[in-house]
Specification:
The chain is of the alpha+beta class. It has six domains: 177 residues, Type I PLP-dependent aspartate aminotransferase-like (Major domain) (Aspartate Aminotransferase, domain 2), CATH 3.40.640.10; 149 residues, Alpha-Beta Complex (Aspartate Aminotransferase, domain 1), CATH 3.90.1150.10; 111 residues, Alpha-Beta Plaits; 131 residues, Probable tRNA modification gtpase trme, domain 1 (Gyrase A, domain 2, 2-Layer Sandwich), CATH 3.30.1360.120; 108 residues, Aminomethyltransferase beta-barrel domains (Alpha-Beta Plaits, 2-Layer Sandwich); 144 residues, Probable tRNA modification gtpase trme, domain 1 (Gyrase A, domain 2, 2-Layer Sandwich), CATH 3.30.1360.120. The chain is built from 29 helices and 40 strands. The strands form nine sheets. A seven-stranded mixed sheet has the order 2-8-7-6-5-3-4, with helices on both faces. Strands 31-32-33-30-24-34 form a six-stranded mixed sheet. It has a six-stranded antiparallel β-barrel with strand order 35-38-37-36-39-40. Strand 22 and strand 23 form a beta hairpin. The chain starts with 11 loop residues before the first helix and ends in a 6-residue tail after the last strand.
Length: 1045
């Protein structure tokens, strides 16, 4: 029969198989993992049925009639009476068709009142609102009802367990109201009611909030009430987490004590998403009802109200009471067992359904503590779902030290003390096996962590087995990879094929296999080995390239282990190099099991090792492959100059009357006018600098990218065409050979710009590495950088002919205006105006064939470096001056970079103190995540051990004599705590410098003093001084932020 309507009939998996499949996967996830988020529970099937009922379809803005509050369930469900009354008298709702909505809401309100009432109040004395959509809207509705913007709220600090909606600065409550936070006693880790009372009396809050989201100990509601009364405040108890425990008598009940009680219904109450507000004050009830609707929200979700009614019926049963008491017992047991394993349980235990674990007791070799985020992510991967959590002492909710684990869901599924003990062992084993480490980023070091592969895989299996031993009320088939997969998945031990695919597949396999995967073309194959982290053999096989992003790995043995290993590399949480936890494997990739291979793998175990610079296992203690012959150390002697060198612009400098002087062997302009004038010209207009003395190299060919990636610290693989980045050449001891810029002009085409003083040394170093002539790794003296062929050229060398390039810098806010004024094609000028920071392009501007990058060394964001042929350099330089650029000398270049906080080789890098990039504030340009680069291990060791940092400082006396490199800085006790590395004038005429100081003296606004000109100071013994003699006095300085805004 065909229906004459527009209704969609049929099952979900027929009408929308994609969403049906997503639901099946999520249902399976909930069944196949142990969910320990304290704010989550599994909702009984009957509740889910009610939530999916026809009540979903209607609007019901408004409330049932007041008289229904005092009706019993029997009276409410007397349909003759209720429907007759509705037809005759209707209700106050804005929509009609709400007769049954009235009844289900009134029934739910009554069940709440009966479940939560306590003496001296009865159900008829409570005013219940069940319409809030969740906990935060419920709290906001109370604020709407009782507060005005600017009123004061006294609530628990977020880091100590308070909730976002209680006044966190990022929340609406924190923006609208004056929030005063109370804390816990640092010794007892319990609430300090005396301190809370003092805060209440001092600040006179309008509302005192008791209740929290991550503080697990039971409150004293009478003490809270006494504090609120003393301040003339309302007491609001937010027991969102604890409602189910309260209903079962397993946690103190605030109803009848607190003026307002709020809680969510989807946590320990095991109901649908929603919230409840209860008060025993009639005068507050109407305000709260109006605060919910129309104050905070429109129509209630009547399907959720219906589901809540069902959950409340269950909450009246003995089974529910036993569940809640067992939930608390399980949480206490879990905390006890983790404490016995040496993990600190914050707050010294629990009185509720949750515990908070301080992960920072697990510390890595570099001193990094295990973060809550890393702990939560790793536990999630083994099948234990919790959440990261701030704990007392944390300074940011973005970087918490703890994890929060709850027992409601696992208790619902049948967990008892015996299973808790097994779970605690797994959790402790995993967390204590973690190796935390820090990765430098542009803003701060970010905590990361790894753990041994077998620990990780065995924990996954143990959790799976625990899951198999408990109950579940859903029935969804769990798929294998990529959804659920384990080390003991059943694969035949005969030859098997795995498909590895994704844009990072080739790089990951090149890292994981001993053969040169990068050399494969489509359709090519090669025998290969796959090693364990310690260098021992895991498997042999054949790797075959199907296409650019798809490979097949035919393994002769251990296919399950190989699959799990490659998948773990892709997930990036296992240790695959025991000497270097920082390496990030390329990923993600897909690793799928195909089936039995047709390849002949009989000789794959004899696969030769490639001469790749690095692959997994090569650093392992059991590595048995080739290591090469030890190579000699790099030796370089600077050539002696009989006369100073000159740049292509030397004649122009003389014509302009520049003060000349020696720098890096060149006769260079120090200044043309006053240094301050040139300095300000860059800050306010545009300054023009001769930097043609700087080295310009070129690397081209298939191996150029890999070569540069292994000899420099930044990640060249991530450098896009038309972009550039700052980086370093390190010596094998981790100290910089130089800092430099790499510009990527094409897939296989790179420019490298190096400092003039290091040009010859860098050229010799790079060529010696390219030819495999020098030691680049003292731990493996035979290691060489092996890549596909490429060419390295010096573009200032006359032999480079028409390709020669030199560097001229145009810096300052008017530099774009001046550059575009020279003219060019519409397309070139448009591209130039759109050039992003660190971008590079080729264009013909003013008739000059130029490479133009938006980079510079002055701190200006509108800044360019232009690369003409040296034969065109003089004409370009004079043309830019005619267009309005101000010629500037090396003195202004130095003052500008010092003011910007930028380092200079020999001053803030290397130099007499062997300073490394992290000391100069440039550690984010050293990518620990790369598998290997020259100097990496030594650099990390230096970085871990360092106790000093470069700072910017300003001398407070405007007329102070300038400080010089080597001048000492002292603290207020006269102790030497730093050494000046550079100093010059700033834009306001003060002496501004950089200095290497001991950690603890590097924070902004630290007051120090400098003995300026100490090398020339004549110090007389104090005992010999007479009236009128001058004693050496230090100049006061203030430490500034590391880099200006």
């Amino acid at each position: 029969m065909t229906e004459d309507d527009y209704l969609f009939r049929g099952e979900l998996d027929e009408l929308d198989p994609d969403v049906a499949e997503l639901i099946r996967h999520e249902t399976a996830r909930q069944a196949r993992t142990l969910i320990m988020v304290p704010s989550e529970s599994t909702v009984p099937e009957a509740v889910r049925e009610a939530v999916g009922s026809a009540f979903h379809n209607i609007y019901a803005e408004g409330y049932p009639t007041e008289k229904t509050r005092k009706m019993t369930e029997r009276e409410l469900l007397d349909y003759d009476r209720q429907l007759g009354d509705f037809r005759r008298n209707s209700d106050d709702r804005y929509y009609k068709g709400t007769e049954y909505a009235n009844l289900v809401e009134a029934l739910t309100r009554r069940r709440v009142a009966e479940l939560f009432t306590q003496a001296p109040y009865g159900p008829d004395d409570l005013y219940v609102n069940v319409q809030p959509l969740s906990g935060a809207p419920a709290n906001s509705a109370v604020y709407t009802a009782l507060l005005q913007p600017g009123d004061t709220i006294l609530s628990m600090n977020l880091s100590y367990g308070g909730h976002l909606s209680h006044g966190a600065p990022v929340n609406r409550a924190g923006k609208l109201f004056n929030i005063v936070a109370y804390h816990i006693d640092p010794e007892t880790e319990a609430l300090d009611y005396d301190a809370m009372m003092q805060l209440a009396l001092e600040h006179k809050p309008k509302i005192v909030i008791g209740g929290y989201s991550s503080y697990p100990l039971a409150p004293d509601w009478e003490a809270y009430k006494m504090i609120a009364d003393a301040a003339g405040a309302y007491l609001m108890a937010d027991v969102a987490h604890f409602a189910g425990l309260i209903a079962a008598g397993a946690y103190p009940n605030p109803v009848g004590i607190a003026d307002i009680v709020t809680f969510t219904t989807h946590k320990t109450l095991n109901g649908p998403r929603g919230a409840v507000i209860i008060t025993h004050h009639k005068d507050l009830a109407s305000k709260i009802d109006r605060g919910v609707f129309p104050g905070e929200q429109g129509g209630p979700h009547m399907n959720s109200v219906a589901g809540l009614a069902v959950a409340l019926r269950f909450a009246q049963t003995e089974q529910f009471k036993q569940l809640q008491h067992q939930t608390v017992a399980n949480a206490r047991r879990l905390g006890q067992k983790l404490d016995e394993r040496g993990l600190r349980v914050v707050y010294k235990g629990t009185d509720s359904h949750m515990i908070v674990v301080d992960c920072s007791t697990v510390v890595g070799p570099d001193g990094t503590a295990l973060s809550g985020d890393m702990a939560a992510r790793i536990l999630d991967l083994i099948g234990v779902v919790g959440n990261r959590q701030t704990i007392p002492g944390d300074t940011s909710a973005l970087r918490p030290s703890g994890i929060r684990l709850g027992t409601p869901w696992i208790t619902q599924r049948g967990f008892d003390e015996a299973r808790i003990d097994k779970l605690a062992t797994i959790i402790a084993d995993v967390l204590q096996a973690c190796v935390p480490y820090s990765m430098p980023t542009t803003k701060r070091n970010e905590a990361r962590a790894r753990l041994p592969f077998d620990t990780f895989q065995q924990a996954k299996i143990a959790i799976r087995d625990l899951v198999d031993s408990i109950g579940i009320d859903t029935d969804a088939e769990a798929d294998g990879y990529p959804h659920f997969f384990y080390l003991d998945d059943a694969y035949s031990n005969t030859g098997q094929t795995l498909a590895v695919s994704g844009k990072n597949a080739g790089r990951l396999l090149d890292l994981a296999l001993t053969s040169d995967v990068a050399a494969l073309a489509d359709g090519d194959e090669q025998p290969t080995l796959l090693l364990e982290a310690d260098g021992s053999l895991m498997a042999s096989g054949i790797v075959e390239r199907i296409s650019k992003d798809t490979y097949q790995l035919h393994v002769a043995d251990n296919p399950a282990r190989v699959a799990a290993w490659l998948r773990s590399l892709s997930d990036n949480f296992v240790i695959f190099d025991e000497s270097d936890p920082y390496i990030t494997a390329p990923g993600p990739v897909s690793v799928k099991y195909i089936g039995e291979t047709e390849k002949n793998l009989s000789k794959s175990a004899d696969a030769p090792y490639s001469d790749k610079t690095y692959f997994i296992g090569k650093n392992g203690e059991n590595y048995a492959g080739p290591v090469g012959n030890a190579l000699p150390s790099f030796e370089f002697t600077e050539p002696e100059l009989t006369e100073m060198l000159t740049t292509p612009l030397h004649d122009v400098h003389l014509q302009l009357g520049a003060k000349m002087g020696e720098f890096a062997g060149y006769d260079m302009p120090l200044w043309y006018d006053k240094v301050m004038n040139e300095h300000l010209a860059v800050r306010n207009g545009a300054g023009l600098f001769d930097v043609t003395h700087m080295g310009v190299f070129e690397a081209t060919g298939p191996g150029a990218e890999d070569f540069l990636n292994m000899v420099t610290t930044n990640n060249v693989h991530l450098l896009r065409n038309g972009r550039s980045h700052y980086t370093f050449l390190l010596d094998t001891d981790g100290v910089p050979h130089d800092d430099l810029m790499i510009y990527r002009l094409g897939d296989e085409h790179f420019f490298i710009v190096v400092n003039a003083s290091n040009n010859d040394k860098n050229w010799a170093w790079l060529n010696a590495i390219k030819e495999g002539q020098v030691c680049i790794d003292p731990d493996m003296p035979g290691r060489t950088v092996e890549t596909a062929p490429f060419e390295l050229r010096d573009l200032r060398d006359p032999g480079s002919g028409a390709d020669r390039r030199v560097d001229i810098a145009l810096q300052g806010p008017k530099s774009l205006e001046i550059l575009t004024s020279l003219g060019g094609s519409e397309a070139d000028l448009k591209a130039l105006k759109a050039l992003p920071w660190a971008g590079i392009m080729r264009a013909e501007i003013g008739g000059f064939d130029l490479l133009i990058s938006r980079t510079g060394y002055t701190g200006e964001r509108v800044a360019f470096e232009v690369f003409p042929h040296p034969d065109q350099a003089e004409a370009l330089f004079t043309t830019l001056i005619e267009a309005g650029a101000v010629p500037c000398g090396l003195a202004a270049r130095d003052s500008l970079r010092i003011e910007a906080g930028l380092p200079l080789y020999g001053h803030e890098l290397a130099g007499p103190h062997d300073m490394i990039p992290s000391e100069a504030g440039m550690g984010s340009y050293v990518k620990f995540s790369k598998p290997w680069f020259v100097g990496k291990a030594a650099y990390i060791a230096r970085d871990t051990a360092r106790d000093s940092q470069i700072v910017r400082f300003r001398m407070e006396n405007k007329g102070a004599r300038p400080a010089h490199q080597g001048d000492p800085l002292v603290d207020d006790k006269g102790r030497v705590v730093g050494i000046v590395t550079s100093c010059s004038i700033d834009s306001e005429g003060y002496q501004l410098g950089q200095a290497l100081v001991k950690l603890g003296n590097h924070k902004r606004n630290t007051q120090l003093a400098v003995f300026a000109g100490s090398e020339r100071a004549k110090v007389r013994p104090l005992s010999n001084m007479k009236f009128g003699d001058r004693a050496v006095m230090p100049e006061a300085v203030t430490v500034l932020r590391r880099f200006p805004k």
